[in-house]
Amino acid sequence: MTVPGRRSSTFIRLLRSGFTDPSAAARLLDADALAAVRADPVLLDALGATADPDLALLGLVRLAEAQTPDELPRLLDTLVSAKPLRDRLLGVLGASEALGDHLARHPRDWQALVTYEAADLHPGLGDFERGLADAHDPVALRVSYRRCLLSIAARDVCGTIDVAETAAELADLATATLRAALRIASAAAPEDAAACRLAVIAMGKCGGNELNYVSDVDVIFVGEAAHGRDEAKGLQAATRLASHLMRICSETTVEGTIWPVDANLRPEGRNGPLVRTLSSHLAYYQRWAKTWEFQALLKARAVAGDAALGAEYIEAISPLVWQAAERENFVADVQKMRRRVVDNIPAAQVDRELKLGPGGLRDVEFAVQLLQLVHGRSDATLHSGSTLDALHALAAGGYVGRADAAQLHDAYRFLRAMEHRIQLYRLRRTHLVPEDDADLRRLGRSMGLRTEPVAELNKAWRRHASVVRRLHEKLFYRPLLDAVAQLTPGETRLSPRAAGQRLEALGYADPVAALRHLEALASGVTRKAAIQRTLLPVMLGWFADSADPDAGLLNFRKVSDALGKTPWYLRLLRDEGAAAENLARVLSAGRLAPDLLLRAPEAVALLGDPEGLQPRTHEALEQEVLAAVGRAENAEAAVTAARGVRRRELFRTTAADIIGSYGTEDSPAEEDHGALVDRVGGAVSDLTAATLAGALRAAVQSHFGDTLPTRFAVIGVGRFGGHELGYGSDADVLFVHEPREGVDEQEAAKAAQTVIAEMRRLLQLPTTDPPLLIDADLRPEGRSGPLVRTLASYAAYYRRWSLTWESQALLRAEPVAGDDELGRRFIDLIAPLRYPVEGLGEDAVREIRRLKARMESERMPRGADPTLHTKLGRGGLSDVEWTVQLIQMRHAWAEPGLRTTRTREALAAAHAAGLIGTDDAQTLDEAWVLATRVRNAVMLVRGRAGDTFPSETRELAAVGRYLGYAEGTVGEMLDDYRRITRRARAVVDELFYGA
Fold this sequence. Notes:
The protein is mainly α and 995 residues long. Strands 1, 2, 3, 4 and 5 form a 5-stranded mixed beta sheet that branches.
């Protein structure tokens, strides 16, 4: 019978001791097996000190119940009288359900925790080998392995060893296990063992002496025939032994598994032979290996089998590892590796990924390994397989700032400790932080967080992950600035040679010049230099992500020199999150945008305004240009003012295009490439129209005052009228006038011609801005005809002489400047020509096809690749536009949606009207958008127009980056272009030529 109040008192005490289910705990304490110790206060206090008191008590009851009557008293006596055993045993039971299961199955294994000698605190490889010596089959090996693992876990959870020592002991245990597995395999096949020499090389965390509780053990096998034996047969024997070793460790038995042995880091991966000779390994690494393979070999360590062969392997491959940074493709490979993403992690798990997520363990390991590869070729102190040891060496050598290294060291240890405790619970391979509160509570308590374990754990984890994210890039670039800046006494700096090596590895073609720029920007004790030292580590990383980091850094120096004395410039970059990254993307994406910015540096302010990159309306642009022209003293000053607006707005457009195409850390690249093209085409066309309106106003004012003797309108045609101008497009126009009442027709014509000549003169005045050329060659009679006609003259010409190609050209006619009412009347005049009632006759269709075929054969530049020419090539702009225009001229009279000057809009209308199938419409649209983007990219990159891909390597790579292709994939880009345009040409052959 329970004394009143006794139960509630026990309940409260259990609750205070950290039990989450005091009722269940009370029942477990009442178990017969614990009768001798249940009243001992020491036991309850010890249980309350564990990560999970409920789990620890359950494990203890199961262990006690599994003891024989003779052994139980010894367990309980030792438990209450020996604090080291109590802390170890209960600590393990409270942290690991899996090891609790092992103890329940093997109830005598608790005795492995009893000894507490000095040597027992830090066992070595030999101790683990002795612990596995009696295992002669896979099942016994698993039992012995778990017994050894139990001792490591006990020292870990009690704090006897730290996270680095735990990882090293786990690696030693893995080494001993591989040796035992090879011993068992050799005993099972003594003939094979005698026929070969086999060395096991540990890779990854095992090779680096920093293994997890549950991890694949990465290995490479090296084999040779025994002396006097046939090489082929010797390799076959070695392969059988290696395969058996892998099965012994990996297969599931009644005692479970140990861990998978993964040999996929070997040459050729899964496709390569499991075992190779040393000479075969060397031949592969010297000829075929990629940079990531040398990165993996940083941690190679001979661990089992033939010791002499293993040592020969390490000695042979070590020079190759430290020469990897001198390989031809090292920079491209490094850039690919640096841009690796977490795409393979399910979206729901990214925020819980401890290893691969942003700010995770892989970020630290990757950064350290890359710095080792770059600087280890000239500094042997960096030749370590351990991440923490290598980080310490990097700091000691000045390759990483000491404060940064200390923060990264602490963050890495914390994250590894979390990983250890997560895996220890069920001995499962996982890197996901749990979601369940009970799991988080146990994890937090196991890390020593006892007041609010869940909240404290999440706070500490996020803080350390944030440190890793922040320092990941800073780790590369901060020492570069320290190399040229004034340092605190006692700080070690990167040598000029080491700084140059790092810049070269990050993609800078001229490290000496880059260091000069850094010195000019960041040296000194001024506030400006201090802010630059804060900005540049991140800016350098963004520049390195481009195809031309050198140009990005040089342009940044130029802009900084131009704006350095303005109070807002550096403050904008420092305080406005997106401004600095936007500027870095713009400055390193080619020549056009930086050239525009350097002629109007104050436009940097647009990059920090959330609305700053949005295109302005045609009305707003025209109003600003006309107001500027009205304030000017003369025509030249007026056009200079109009050009200033054009320059700023062109920069706005190019910047928005580059940032939308590249994406930023906070905003991914625009996926709708058609929308990008439409925005650029619309913005450039509106800006050109506003500039022409300003030039027209200036020309009229300079010669005629306020009123021109004739009404005058500018009609945009071609890409201009279609709102599809690119950065390097000419402005195709027609000029129309109509004499005012009482004005002689010859006087009116002369006035109109004077205005056109003045507009052309003003727009052709020498300037460093991109040229704006007016092309009126699509007028009636072409270059042979008058430059300007009256509306009545146009009507007479079109009525009597108009050719089919002229009607086709008028499909994209739209008023862009001058007299609005005259422009509308011109559009009304040409409507029957471009949208003929009942459509085109067969003779007209044949004429258009003949003209297109002749243009393809005659106008293609000599030597140009027709599969890559964006305008006249196969499936390019001309193919798509002529196909759409033929559909318009045939059907627009009956389909109002086709009455548009825009190519994509007309194509969509044709599809909506059932005139073109869905697949064909998508194919043509994709090809047209791609060809347009290539033309825009060429202008952005080279600063001058072009209709085909650049031949210079860096320019071609920059076009690829704009189009969304990673470094080193320009071949894939060209293949994709050919494939997309080839499919478009097949549609053109069917729809346009009727093939």
